[in-house]
Amino acid sequence: GQNIDQPTEMTATEGAIVQINCTYQTSGFNGLFWYQQHAGEAPTFLSYNVLDGLEEKGRFSSFLSRSKGYSYLLLKELQMKDSASYLCAVRDSNYQLIWGAGTKLIIKP
Amino acid sequence: TAGITQAPTSQILAAGRSMTLRCTQDMRHNAMYWYRQDLGLGLRLIHYSNTAGTTGKGEVPDGYSVSRANTDDFPLTLASAVPSQTSVYFCASSEGQTTDTQYFGPGTRLTVL
Questions:
Q1: pLDDT tens figures, A58-109
Q2: Neighbours of A90 (CB within 10 A)
Q3: Do A97 and B45 touch (CB under 8 A)?
Q4: Nearest to residue B36, comparing CAs of B69, B62, B2?
Q5: What totals of helices (H) and strands (E) does chain A contain, helices first?
Q6: Among A1, A73, B70, B88, which residue's CB has the most CB atoms within a 10 Å radius?
Q7: Which residues of chain B make contact with A44, given a CB cutoff of 8 A?
Q8: pLDDT of B16-58, one tens digit each?
């Protein structure tokens, strides 16, 4: 079967750095996405990785290792508004997105 | 631009009744999707459409039907609702299917009693 694993919940301090991990086992791989979802709102796109390595976009970076079936999202200089769920999704061989259950990130002052 | 709109925002429905969730996008995207999101689970694909006039089944299609008569609209119909269909439903669209980012509507919160 296909599986995406992420921690259920993480807590971090405002101004700090946090890394959210995602491991996957899917039938094929055609890219990995990270989305942010605030409570009661729609998911919004953060990043996309299809090749190994680090993609940096402002305070957010995303890393991919296809051989290890592993990705992480790195959030720097955390702000209170970063409190949200972070969803990892993999596009499989049928070009469908397989979603993890999400990681709820709690930021404390 | 509005992007993707969904209606209604929320609904309480009696079991056995039918309902259509509406989704409209103004980005002229070819592909559209319906997901449901349940606590503790990832988004699950119900149905999708790669282009107007075509539809396909996702991971959890039973009890749901869709149509894609034109590019902009992708309604989801529950023919006879059951309590297990209580969920938050998100419509999404992407320019194409194979490589493009999906953009989501605001969601419809449905409770079936």
A1: 999 999 999 999 999 999 999 999 999 999 999 999 888 999 999 999 999 9
A2: 25
A3: yes
A4: B62
A5: 0, 11
A6: A73
A7: 104
A8: 999 999 999 999 999 999 999 999 898 999 999 999 999 999 9
Nearest to A95 among B44, B98, B106 (CB): B98
Query: How far apart are the CA of B40 and the nearest CA of chain A, in angstroms?
Result: 6
Q: Which amino acid is at A109?
A: P
Per DSSP bridges, beta strands A103-108 and A9-13 are parallel
- How many whole angstroms from its chain centre is CA A71? 7
CB of B76 closer than 8 Å to CB of B46: yes
Contacts of A42 in chain B (CB under 8 A): 90, 104-107
Lookup result for tokens 């070819």: B30
- B23-59: string of b/e by CB count within 10 Å (b at 16+)? bbbeeebbbbbbbbbeeeebbbbbbbbbeeeebeebb
Q: How far apart are the first and last CA of chain B?
A: 36
